[in-house]
Design a protein that fits this description.
Length: 250
């Protein structure tokens, strides 16, 4: 059985005081969401704050990006080993906002995932199609290619440790969510691809859904057999909503 993972992607939001209130709220209510694993992915400067607030709790924390390099002259980049020093268990890689605004290719995303795994971090590898691609019936081809680049860069053991997040771009921050059936179809396709590589890994790998997941649509999405959790943007900034989504997974 794959344990449900409810992950918050704070994106470029927060402040020391706002985070303190948010983390206090999540900590206070986390007991009710014990059946799933909770994770917050914060901006780099707040990882120390997350470590201070969350160490010793059941709530994990992580980052939103990592360098594909181990160390060296890469101004502005952050290494996987540095994230480990701040207690990160996870790191998001290849979010569509980075693919779009920072020009990250699937090959770069794959290198980042490999680097994260080598350092003992679990990468949450994001894939997803645009509205135009969906309307042109290219969803499986686009999303499948994004996953293939990662599968090529990892060995079987590493494949078994990754997490995948399916985030259709047209559902991110729009209030429009994929229907449970639409999401399930893509998740099943992704799992079949992983199974073609390693059946054991396919059984183990969590595939999260992301894109306007909210308290009122989470239960239906999370009830689908291949949806193992959520990667939540906007609703992860309110403790009440984040916890309501986690409760919906029970
Ligand atoms: P929203 O939940 O705000 O649509 O964001 C989804 C997302 O991009 C999570 O990574």
């Amino acid at each position: 059985m794959r344990r449900t993972l409810i992950a918050g992607n704070w994106k470029m939001n927060g402040s020391l005081s706002a985070n303190a209130a948010l983390l206090a709220g999540i900590k206070a209510g986390a007991g009710k969401a014990r059946s799933c694993e909770l994770l917050v992915c914060a901006p780099f400067p707040y990882l120390a704050q997350c470590q201070g607030e969350l160490a010793g709790t059941a709530i994990a924390w992580g980052a939103q990006d990592v360098s594909e390099h181990a160390s060296g002259a890469y101004t502005g980049n952050v290494a996987a080993a540095m994230l480990r020093e701040f207690g990160c268990a996870y790191v998001i890689v290849g979010h569509s906002e980075r693919r779009t605004y920072q020009g990250e290719s699937s090959e770069m995303v794959a290198k980042k995932a490999a680097r994260a795994l080598q350092a003992g971090l679990i990468p949450i590898i994001c894939v997803g199609e645009t509205l135009e691609e969906r309307q042109a019936a290219q969803t499986d081809a686009v999303v499948g290619k994004q996953l293939d680049a990662v599968l090529e860069a990892l060995n079987d053991e590493e494949v078994g440790r990754m997490v995948v997040a399916y985030e259709p771009l047209w559902a991110i921050g729009t209030g429009v969510t994929a229907t449970p059936d639409m999401a399930q179809a893509v998740h099943a396709m992704l799992r079949a691809k992983i199974a073609a590589r390693s059946a054991a890994a396919a059984d183990r790998v969590k595939i999260l859904y992301g894109g306007s997941m909210k308290p009122d649509n989470a239960a239906q999405l999370l009830a689908m057999p291949d949806i193992d959790g959520g990667l939540i943007g906007g609703a992860s900034l309110k403790a009440e909503d984040f916890l309501a989504i986690a409760s919906a997974s029970a």
